[in-house]
Sequence to fold (219 residues):
Amino acid sequence: MGLQMPTGMAYDEWERAGRQLADVVDSSIWWLADWTVHGKDHYTDRYQRGIRAVGLSYQTLRNYAWVSRRFDVSRRRPSLSFQHHAELASMTVADQELWLDRAEQHQWSTKQLRNAIRAARQNEQQPATGTEPSRRLEVPGSRLQWWARAADQLGVDFEQWVMTTLDSAAATALEDLPHTADQESLPAPQPLKSLPATPTPAPETPENRTDRPRMAVSA
Fold:
């Protein structure tokens, strides 16, 4: 229920103890995440009861488990925290490895990693010409995670899933409108086949809210 430090402890010993405690705290998140995944996979009808029995937050552990599934143990970087990995969980494996390498090389904090990702996305979204307008769609991190789970379940690239799903919705909305020259010049969408419906994600609450990067879509 507490920590008592010995009298006369040298600063170096105190600092080393802090580092060890930080490692234990960060490791415990991975342990809880893997524990939840195991329960989900092996005790489908009872694992939620087990979570309640030990007094843990189901929503929090579900978020942990999602990150765990996105990063196999062999791909987790010991020098980076669980939150570093969570920032990258919705990306493709190639992009995850790229940003993990950068975070390790520059020894970024979680906030510095998030800012670097945001800056890179803003640079990618610059219009091709100086006069071309750009529109951005801000997407909450919890919804972004929900979509990424759906794409992962289908075994398709996340960005491809977003694009094809939006194309399919646009084609359905526009199919009854009279054709114009502008519409004929647009490429025909290629929606995914047999796309299962996914439930609407639960609204963000103080319990499940995390500071995840927001996806910006440029048009």
Notes: The chain has nine helices and two strands. The first helix runs from residue 11 to 42. The CA atoms of residues 139 and 214 lie 5 Å apart. Confidence is low (pLDDT under 50) at residues 190-202, 205-219.
